[in-house]
Design brief:
single chain, Arc Repressor Mutant, subunit A, alpha/beta, 5-stranded mixed sheet, 14 helices, globular, Nucleotidyltransferase, domain 5, about 425 residues, about 40% helix
Length: about 425
């Protein structure tokens, strides 16, 4: 299938500068002025910029291609393709991978992306820690730091700490800052990914959060909902293979949902799709953090698990957790997960309760979406079958058997990496997208 050429928008990425020593022999700012900046272009320059990004996208899919193959896909002449390829080689963005035999008997040169040409940063923000990773141009995770201590609160101090952690990671990264093209940051709650505004955290100023962080780090920044970013990471690098209709359920302190329909992420009209945790499925008087009662999160989440644990302890139940955590006000989901994996019976029982209620909610989604695959991710998925089996049992109980027959239920393969990979990939997509 041939790719159609469309014009780039004026609001794509920021102009960066590269130090001359980064790529010997390369003119200063050549990469960013020619390909990745948002400066206004017109005519031939604009078309060439778009064509180069289309070449990147084609090489993404095929890993390597010849000039003849690229020319056919782009529907442009071989001389024009050759000229673009030569410019990209000069910029050290692609390289000659060598020759292969062609049908005409003459060997053709194959071209592909240069992994170390540029990099993308992914920041996955959790309630009590942060995961940060760095991805190269060929989508390899170069380095990452997981579970960096952090407390997510809607305060200026929490935002300042997050920015400090990001800047520290950049300082210690094995590549120069000038080679990091963009950064993706995942936050829970409602995120407008098109303008980079968070409606749940750090909304102290009228300026979008992405712009605030960008000004403090010097790197083009994009925001995404954490569940959607985790879902994208899993879609691209994890359990998803040939499936086109997939639901990714992020079970952490809350419950989020990433939706893949016909191979594409579904955002919804306003970009707020996936608020599965706030489906009003229960008749209770428990007030959710959204301000409403009866949300799925009040009965089937890490927060609900902690609440039920405290209730059971007060009722006289015993658990090994009590010996470890003297003050139950300091109890975390991680404490309960570790206890369950160490065969603490109370924690296993409570996970079964959560799984059953989660499965009831998923049964409704199955009846609506009829997905090929549901992936359980997030912190609670680390308990494995303690969560999966009761969830599967409830799905079988509450969904239509004719509808759920072809729906698989799997645990996330990527675990903690899902969010970081998703953030990196989405930030990379923003830079390479041809509008």
């Amino acid at each position: 299938m041939r790719l159609s050429l469309q014009f780039l928008s004026k609001n794509q990425t920021k102009l960066f500068s590269l130090s001359p020593e980064l790529l010997p022999g390369m003119p200063r700012n050549r990469i960013f002025s020619d390909v990745f900046n948002e400066e206004t272009s017109s005519g031939v320059a604009l078309k060439n910029k778009a064509l180069k990004k289309l070449i990147f996208n084609l090489l993404d899919k095929a890993d390597s291609s010849s000039i003849t193959e690229l020319s056919k896909e782009l529907n442009i002449s071989v001389p024009k393709t050759t000229s673009l390829i030569n410019e990209l080689i000069e910029d050290r963005l692609i390289s000659d991978y060598g020759k292969i035999d062609s049908t005409g008997g003459r060997k053709a040169s194959m071209y592909g992306l240069v992994a170390e040409a540029c990099f993308f940063l992914g920041v996955d923000v959790k309630k009590y820690y942060v995961n940060i990773g760095l991805m190269d141009f060929k989508k390899h995770l170069v380095t990452q730091k997981t579970k960096i201590p952090f407390r997510l609160e809607n305060t200026q101090a929490s935002l300042s700490q997050l920015i400090q952690l990001i800047n520290q990671f950049i300082k210690e990264a094995p590549v120069k800052k000038d080679k990091i093209l963009s950064m993706g940051i995942n936050l829970s709650g409602r995120i407008n990914h098109t303008i980079g505004y968070s409606y749940s955290f750090f909304h102290f100023q009228e300026e979008p959060l992405s712009g605030i962080i960008e000004s403090k780090t010097g790197i083009k920044t994009y925001l995404e909902n954490d569940s959607r970013a985790m879902a994208y990471g899993e879609f691209m690098c994890g359990e998803v293979s040939t499936e086109k209709n997939v639901l990714f359920v992020n079970v952490d302190y809350g419950v989020g949902l990433g939706i893949l329909i016909d191979g594409k992420i579904y955002y919804g009209k306003s970009g707020f799709s996936g608020e599965f945790g706030h489906a009003p499925l229960f008749e209770n008087e428990i007030i959710c953090h959204c301000g409403k009662k009866g949300c799925l999160e009040t009965e089937a989440s890490g927060t609900a698990l902690i609440r039920r644990f405290r209730e059971r302890i007060q009722e006289g139940s015993s658990s090994s957790v009590v010996k470890k955590v003297k003050n139950l006000n300091d109890l975390t989901v991680t404490d309960l997960i570790q206890a369950a994996n160490a065969e603490d019976m109370l924690c296993i029982e409570l996970l079964a309760e959560v799984g059953e209620k989660l499965g009831k909610g998923l049964a409704a989604l199955i009846n609506v979406f009829n997905p090929e695959l549901i992936i359980l991710g997030g912190t609670l998925s680390e308990t494995g079958d303690y969560l999966r089996l009761p969830t599967k049992s409830a799905i079988n109980k509450f969904s239509l058997s004719l509808v759920n027959t072809d729906t698989q239920l799997k645990l996330s393969r990527l675990g903690e990496k899902a969010g970081v990979l998703g953030a990196c990939l989405l930030a990379r997509n923003k830079v390479l997208t041809v509008f």
